[in-house]
Specification:
Layout lengths: L6 H12 L3 H14 L7 H18 L21 E5 L6 H9 L16 E7 L2 E7 L12 H5 L4 E7 L5 H14 L2 E4 L17 H6 L4 E10 L9 H9 L5 E3 L8 H11 L2 E7 L11 E4 L4 H8 L1 H5 L1 E7 L8 E3 L9 E7 L3
Parallel strand pairs: 1-3, 1-4, 4-6, 5-6, 6-7, 8-12
Antiparallel strand pairs: 2-3, 8-9, 10-11, 10-12
């Protein structure tokens, strides 16, 4: 088990977890390999890092004859967050995706209708959430490229059909197949109220032991509820599975639960909308920048422009995070949803 790792390795590992593209992940992996202590306790992890580097190099390179054995599909994150849709065959994922995003994904009564990732955007307040419909997962089959597709996701919807007699077994199979590929569907969301709390921080050795584990906070979504399943079936399903996901019953025909689902995602992901203001001008209240709860003025500045972030001196804020309107704050000042931020750099 890795021990006595350097601060540089920890920084590279954290950057890998936060990377949003394969090119960024590749750079982080190379830095992890460069900075990891070279001793017997890290041999397995070194080998895993080298394997990941090889895989990403192949994906980023142009396809060669006799090269890769199969396709690899990733969806570039857009909007305030990326949410992946997972579930067994015929669970109603594609119908729900179409209803929420207005996409034209294939919908059919036969299994495995969805063959490739299908992205779409959910309007949410004055931002968008990216929803990616993925092929179904069963005990018999899971697309091998789903792991890479899930890498940039911020959360997951586990879609189930409570009217299916084998629903419990199907959901258990989805969780088990994903776990085999180091994908954990988390029950806990850091920012939800009502008794749902953040997962306990992992011990340092656990993090080092498996830096490639993908943890996705998950909502259990019961689809097709217009078919009138028993009101207690969703609770019974969670009890049988031994889980406690945030759970919502939905219907694409009646609209039941859809607005509640969107609002849950907005709150659960801790999304913070920040509106920019140029000194001497009115704030742009139509196109917010989005960060997460706990992020600061410097995080907003990085989204506005890297040069402004590099030379930022202070900011003025209007909104919930300030003690008074127009308060002058430093780069480390935490922002709140709805804040207006006026950035002042050495160049302004």
């Amino acid at each position: 088990m890795p021990t006595n790792v350097t601060a540089d390795y920890k920084k590279a590992e954290q950057a890998f977890r936060e990377a949003r593209s394969n090119r960024e992940r590749l750079d982080c992996l190379r830095e992890m390999l460069r900075t990891i202590p070279k001793h017997k306790g890290t041999e397995h992890l070194q080998a895993e890092i080298k394997t990941r580097i090889k895989q990403l190099n192949e994906e980023l390179a142009a396809p060669k004859k006799g090269g890769r054995k199969g396709p690899s599909y990733t969806v570039r994150p857009e909007g305030a967050a990326q949410i992946a849709m997972l579930g067994p065959p015929n669970a109603g994922k594609s119908s729900l995706h179409t209803k929420l995003t207005g996409s034209h994904t294939d919908v059919g009564p036969y299994p495995y209708t969805t063959k490739l990732p299908v992205p779409g955007m959910i309007p949410c307040h004055d931002i968008n959430l990216q929803l990616v419909d993925l092929p179904p997962v069963s005990r018999d089959f899971m697309e091998p490229w789903i792991v890479n597709t899930l890498q940039p996701a911020d959360a997951a919807l586990l879609v189930v059909d409570l009217n299916e007699p084998e629903c419990v077994d199907h959901v258990a199979a989805v969780r088990e197949r994903l776990a085999e590929r180091q994908i954990v569907l988390e029950e806990h969301w850091p920012w939800l109220e009502g008794g749902i709390v953040a997962s306990a921080p992992a011990e340092e050795d656990e993090i080092l032991d498996d830096p490639f584990l993908i943890r996705l906070p998950t909502v259990l979504v019961a689809s097709k509820c217009d078919l009138d399943p028993h009101p207690g079936e969703l609770d019974a399903l969670e009890e049988l599975l031994g889980v406690d996901y945030p759970a919502i019953a939905t219907s694409v025909k009646t609209g039941q639960g859809l607005e509640e689902l969107i609002e849950l995602l907005f709150k659960g992901l801790g999304i913070v909308r920040v509106y920019s203001k140029i000194p001497g001008k009115s704030a742009d209240t139509e196109r917010p920048f989005t960060v997460r709860r706990g992020d600061t003025v410097i995080d907003v500045a990085k989204l506005v422009h890297k040069d402004i972030a590099a030379t930022l001196r202070f900011a003025r804020v209007w909104g919930e995070s300030g003690q008074f309107e127009g308060q002058q704050v430093g780069p480390d000042h935490p922002v709140a949803d709805g804040d207006i931020v006026e950035l002042h750099s050495s160049a302004t």
